[in-house]
Design brief:
Elements (H helix, E strand, L loop, with lengths): L3 H4 L9 H12 L2 H5 L1 H7 L6 H26 L3 H8 L4 H34 L7 H9 L5 H4 L7 H19 L1 H29 L4 H9 L9 H14 L6 H7 L7 H34 L10 H15 L3 H35 L3 H20 L4 H31 L3 H10 L6 H29 L7 H24 L12 H10 L5 H4 L10 H7 L2
Helix pairs in contact: 2-11, 2-14, 2-15, 2-17, 4-13, 4-15, 5-6, 5-13, 5-14, 5-15, 5-20, 5-21, 6-7, 7-10, 7-17, 7-18, 7-19, 7-22, 10-11, 10-17, 10-18, 11-15, 11-17, 12-15, 15-16, 16-17, 17-18, 19-21, 19-22, 20-21, 23-25
């Protein structure tokens, strides 16, 4: 019989804790930090919003980040394998997260492609003065109404060609592996992103009207603290901002060395992410203050978020500001770098899951995953109805995908499997400070309440009226139908047998980890081990030597 090391490819790992931290920050710092947080904070009470924001960070964001770290590092696998090792019947939770990443990856890539093109447009002011809105929707995207044309197949070359380039770059990074690809990409892109955005902020602060924007952003509206919607908004934003429940942090933490400071690393990632968000708020609102002064209006009249901020408001600022081209290149270049670091983390969830399930080599798995996703991405998002599909898929996968799987995962792990004591013990053993029962209370009690409230609120909102005014058939396919398909496919993938070379069936590294932990797996979990758990641990280690 061949040895385990020849049967199963050795699990990859980050070169160091610092590389992991940069990669985790790269995943957390994405498009939402730049184009969503400033407006959420502004609408939530300005400076007063920092109170619910910090409460949400400390009581939900960081505890759920530790939750993902503990599962990934303790059970040493991708999301499906980690949940399966926790308990065999928990495996669908991991595949649910993987499929959510499948959906996000196909549309996330096209936003990076848009940003890349707008970096080039900024240098030439291609959209022309006063035409930013029409340029984006009509000239660039050539947007068509799905109610009139259905799902379009008309190719938009200025979107499709850069989209191909984005996928090629990302596929190369992914094929190089965790250490040489993902780790090195984050070591290069994250410092560049930080420097570029710092320069952008400094330049924005010297624009006329910048102080008006900062006053609008930071002036506290204390009455907003009495609005439950503001607190819900803070918790909702923190939840998405830290990349929890995507399977990303579970996967990334599984690549850490056995003796790694988990909670210390988590705090660095969480506060670095929040620091970048506040920096983004300063830069964005300083620029919006200039825009408001130039148009002779209030900041409230120009403040927006998401695509409207990035591809309409900022091009307007670029057109009107002295040295606007530099601002545009820095802003859209930052969007590209932030998007790429997030996209590779999303794809890694999928690649790692298939590697664990099938036992395939890195390059084979990367190509098997990335090429079909790139084809679907091109088919859906390089056409004239791309914006409608993106808008709907993003809204539904966030509300009823990520939020739903987070709620179910917390309930299953805390209340059905009773695994929080084992996870808290693992965190306390390998961390610079103990999290103890307070963490168990926050994850097991507060998190389900907050997630449940947010999920019910979203459900009521989406049912009460058709989202975005889109046709019923369209929402049935790209909204509700997609949500149901994610759960059904997760159950189906869990039912499929694990390959003979999979990490679930033959993983001597995990056996050694169990022996070091002095931990006996559940009967359900042990049934997937090649060597029976009744044999001595030395026998299990010997099988892989």
């Amino acid at each position: 019989m061949a040895t385990a090391t020849t049967q199963t490819p050795k699990r990859e790992a980050f070169g160091s804790r610092n590389v992991f931290i940069l990669s985790a920050i790269g995943s957390a710092v994405g498009l939402g930090n730049i184009w969503r947080f400033p407006y959420v904070a502004y609408e939530g009470g300005g400076g007063a919003f920092l109170i619910p924001y910090l409460c949400a960070l400390l009581t939900a964001g960081i505890p759920l980040l530790f939750f993902d770290y503990a599962i990934g590092h303790r059970f040493r696998g991708s999301a499906p394998l980690a949940f399966r090792r926790m308990h065999r019947r928990a495996e669908p939770l991991g595949w649910w997260q993987v499929l959510i990443c499948v959906v996000i990856s196909v549309y996330y890539a096209v936003i990076i492609a848009w940003a890349a093109m707008y970096t080039w447009f900024s240098a030439q002011l291609t959209w022309g003065p006063g035409n930013e809105n029409d340029f984006f929707f009509i000239d660039f995207l050539r947007s068509a109404d799905v109610a009139e044309v259905g799902i379009s197949t008309e190719f938009v070359p200025q979107v499709g060609l850069p989209l191909v380039a984005v996928w090629l770059i990302v596929i190369v990074i992914m094929a190089l592996g965790v250490k040489r690809g993902i780790g090195r990409a984050n070591m290069i892109l994250m410092p560049l992103l930080t420097v570029m955005f710092a320069i952008l902020v400094v330049q924005s602060l010297f624009l006329p009207g910048a102080m008006d924007g900062l006053n609008a952003f930071f002036t506290p509206n204390w009455e907003a603290l009495g609005d439950p919607a503001v607190w819900a908004s803070a918790y909702g934003h923190i939840f998405f901002s830290l990349s929890v429940a995507f399977g990303i942090m579970v996967t990334y933490s599984s690549y850490l060395k056995r003796k790694t400071d988990l909670t210390g690393s988590g705090l660095v990632v969480a506060f670095a992410n929040s620091g970048f968000e506040i920096l983004a708020g300063i830069g964005v609102f300083a620029a919006l203050g200039f825009m408001a002064q130039a148009q002779g209006t209030e900041v409230a009249g120009v403040a927006s978020s998401g695509i409207g901020l990035a591809f309409i408001a900022f091009p307007t600022i670029v057109s009107q500001a002295a040295g606007g081209s530099i601002i545009g290149v820095l802003f859209f270049g930052a969007l590209v770098f932030a998007g790429v670091t997030s996209l590779i983390s999303i794809l890694e969830v999928i690649v790692a899951a298939l590697q664990d399930k099938l036992g395939w080599a890195r390059i084979r798995t990367t190509l098997t995953v990335s090429i079909p996703l790139a084809i679907v991405s091109m088919a859906l998002f390089s056409t004239t109805t791309a914006l409608s599909v993106l808008d709907t898929a993003d809204a539904f996968v966030n509300a009823f995908g990520i939020m739903a799987v987070a709620l179910v995962a917390v309930i299953v792990v805390a209340w059905l499997l009773h695994k929080l004591p084992a996870l808290v013990d693992h965190l306390d053993r390998r961390s610079s400070f103990r999290v103890g029962r307070v963490w168990m209370l926050l994850v097991g009690a507060l998190a389900p309440l907050v997630l449940g409230y947010l999920l019910v609120t979203e459900l009521i909102s989406k049912i009460s009226e058709p989202y975005g005014g889109y046709p019923g058939w369209f929402l049935a396919v790209f909204g509700w139908g997609m949500v149901i398909a994610l759960v059904a496919l997760a159950l189906l993938l869990s039912a499929l047998p694990w390959g003979g070379r999979s990490h679930a069936k033959d993983d001597p590294e995990y056996d050694e980890f169990l022996a070091e932990e002095d931990y006996e797996p559940d009967a359900e979990t042990s049934s997937i081990q090649t060597v029976p758990t009744s044999e001595p641990r030395t026998t299990e280690k010997g099988a892989g030597s």
